[in-house]
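Sequence, structure tokens reproduced for reference:
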Amino acid sequence: MDDQNLYNLLKKYSQGNCTAEELAALEAWYAALGRQLPDQVMVPQSDAAQLLTRQKLQELRNRLGQPVTLPGLQVVKTPVWKKVFRYAAIWTGILVALGTGYYLLRTDTSHKDGYATGQSGFNRFIILPDGSTVILHAGSKLEFPDAFTGTSREVRLSGEAYFDIRRDSLKPFIINTGKLKTTVLGTAFNIKAYPGLPEITVSVTRGKVKVEDARKVLAVLTPDQQIVYNTEEETASQQTVNANAKISWTTADMTFENATFETIAANLSRRYQVNIQFSNEAMKQCQIRVSFTGTESLKEVLDVICQVRNATYTIENGHDVLIKGKGCSQ
């Protein structure tokens, strides 16, 4: 997004005139630019936050040669609440986009890995550095490095996620969840490990998974097997389950019943951290009825949706999507 378009969107945003699509565009733009940002940023209204804000806005003024006045600007911590996250995310993205290398720090400044957060109200589709994919449940958090450079691929999960891991026999994939460590080479499985809850659950849909605590290997799971570990008693029970039923949550925000193309685009923008635009405004109100498993890539989803409405699409820079086509009769 160039400076002029950014200015126009920010001006509309500050006046409360952004459409749902424009808000989604700002959110997607933030996600694309700020993937490595920590979940918590500067203390609201702190001197550092306000100074950085003024510096970044002044840089935008200088580049555009016109005033930028955005009342009520503040940097906030990103909580789980949907509305607060939306605006905090946008302002965080603004500060990163207008600067060159500024990072808003959480209290643990020694942490250098990437963060991904499943924001309240919708899940996120994440592609890891090795090409593995993760569906991150709303309200959950995944920590991962910019690149898997060691002898293993390690991440840390707080909450729930469905993993589809690319096979690499030389680099096992390890998920740390509190007291448990789950190790795989290439497989698909679900982990539920919410802070404050006494149980951690691992369910396998494909391949083989090793689960262990600090003392021993607890189980080696194959498809449709599950282990439930009690973190307080440090005991584990293994059972046979319908693993696909355990990941039904991945479809929660990917079922559309006569939803408009605009609504679907906003949903996909959040889920896949992309910016979706239409070449023809008339397409936005086209209604579509379609459902997905929730594990599909963005391309797979767009292929289906565009086929339904006889549309085409292009993806540039990995995150700018343009959908082309004619309108539709209601």
